[in-house]
Amino acid sequence: MGSWDTGPFDNDTAADFANALDNAEPEACETLIRGVLIRTIDATGYLGEADEAVAAAALIAAQCPEGEPVDTPYGPETPTPIFPTALRALADEALACIVGDDAESASNWVAQEDWKQWQAMLTRLRAVLAPPPPSFALFDIQP
After folding, report:
1. What is the DSSP string of 43-56?
2. Nearest-10 crossing angle of helices 26-42, 86-99
3. How far is CA 5 from CA 76, 95, 117, 129, in A?
4. Is 42 exposed, middle or buried (0-12, 13-18, 19+ CB in 10 A)?
5. 129-134 contacts at long range (C-beta below 8 A, 24 or more positions apart)
6. pTM score
7. Which of 85, 29, 82 is nearest to 52 (CA)?
8. What's the mean pLDDT in 55-68?
């Protein structure tokens, strides 16, 4: 993996994914993103598209109320279309698979501190993508 920093697009694979999104028709972007998330969720063993899934999750999270914009020269140059909110759950599930693959994820980093920053970034993305807790009582229990 050619990584130069710990952001979601700071590696060769994610930067190539951004280029693929730039080259796709706007309506195909959702299909590309959904596909990489589903393949990551369904993967057994090595998570071959983890970098693309993180980049996709960052793009989805950027459209969430608490999300940070993807502001990097390595991300897509063309604005992405508004994604359906259902992609949030897929992105969170894909990130859960990546976070749960500690041994493989950690082996990609030379410096332990970089791996910790990567993990912190994944945690922030998951916090934004996670559905908000219900704001109403599920049960009205009377004493």
Report:
1. --SS-TTHHHHHHH
2. 40
3. 17, 18, 9, 22
4. exposed
5. 129/57, 129/60, 129/61, 129/64, 129/88, 129/89, 129/91, 129/92, 129/95, 130/92, 131/88, 131/89
6. 0.85
7. 29
8. 94
Phi, psi of 3 (to 5 degrees): -110, 145
Q: Alpha-carbon distance 59 to 130, whole Å?
A: 14
pLDDT tens, position by position, 8-44: 998 889 999 999 999 999 889 999 999 999 999 999 8
pLDDT level of residue 118 (50, 70, 90 thresholds):
confident
Q: CA 36 to CA 23: how far, in whole Å?
A: 16
Closest CA to 37 of 90, 98, 111, 102: 90
The DSSP H or E segment spanning 84 is none
Q: Please, what is the average pLDDT of the chain?
A: 85
**Helix %, strand %, coil % of the chain (to 5):** 55, 0, 45
